[in-house]
Amino acid sequence: MTALLLIDVQRGFDDAAFWGPRNNPAAEANIKALLGAWQARRDPIVLVHHDSAEPDSPLRPGQAGNDFTAELDGARADLVFGKRVNSAFLGDVDLDAWFKRRGIGSFVLAGIQTNFCCETTARMGGNLGYDVTFALDATFTFELAGPDGTVLSADELSRATATNLHGGGFATVTSTGRILG
Asked: 81 in helix, strand or coil?
């Protein structure tokens, strides 16, 4: 059985003034397509939200930005929980134990941000022995400056994540169309 794991699909990521330029404007439509397919099949769906402790973060609990986006309205989730770090495996719920109790050995991962919470969760899932499918076109991220001040675009960071996950054997990196095809 394959679960759908949606990471941090939250309204706070709409704050362009806070986050900066993003990539992949089709991510939300692809997330919604994956969710619709999993709901139609009644396969397991897990929704995770980031509960930031940073005082200026739009993802702080109790703020509108902590809420899921409209694409998840009406979602029939089997599990919903928060986390305060990048990996969903280190959240308020023991996701590994939850998967194992249900006989779930594989998951499709999508959400926000490609190179942080999504990539970290995929790496941990791979390390824990799960068959991880990373829906790259159902994720997005933002440009980011490195330690030397060089700014990498969101597309460059997304490509680096795909390379890291593929090259490291952590996940199968593919598209929403191939997953649903």
From this structure: strand
Task: Say if residues 47 and 39 touch (Cβ distance below 8 Å).
Answer: no
Rg (CA), the chain: 15
Which pair of tokens denotes residue 27?
């991510």
pTM: 0.97
Q: Distance between terminal CA atoms of the chain? A: 17
Compute CA distances 139 → 59, 103, 147, whole Å.
17, 26, 24
Encode pLDDT of 106-152 as tens digits.
Answer: 999 999 999 999 999 999 999 999 999 999 999 999 999 999 999 99
**DSSP per residue, 138-172:** EEE-B-EE-TTSPEEPHHHHHHHHHHHHHHTTS-E
In angstroms, what CA-CA distances link 41 with 3, 33, 100, 102, 158? 11, 13, 20, 16, 29
What's the confidence (pLDDT) of residue 53?
96
Of 129, 121, 143, 133, residue with least CA distance to 47: 121
Question: What per-residue string of b and e applies to 55-91 under the rule 16 or more CB within 10 Å gives b?
Answer: eebbbbeeeebbebbebbeebebbbbbbbeebbbbeb
Residue 11 near residue 65 (C-beta atoms within 8 A): yes
Indicate the helix (H) or strand (E) that contains 7. Answer: strand 2-7
Asked if 84 and 52 count as a contact pair (C-beta separation under 8 A), the reply is: yes
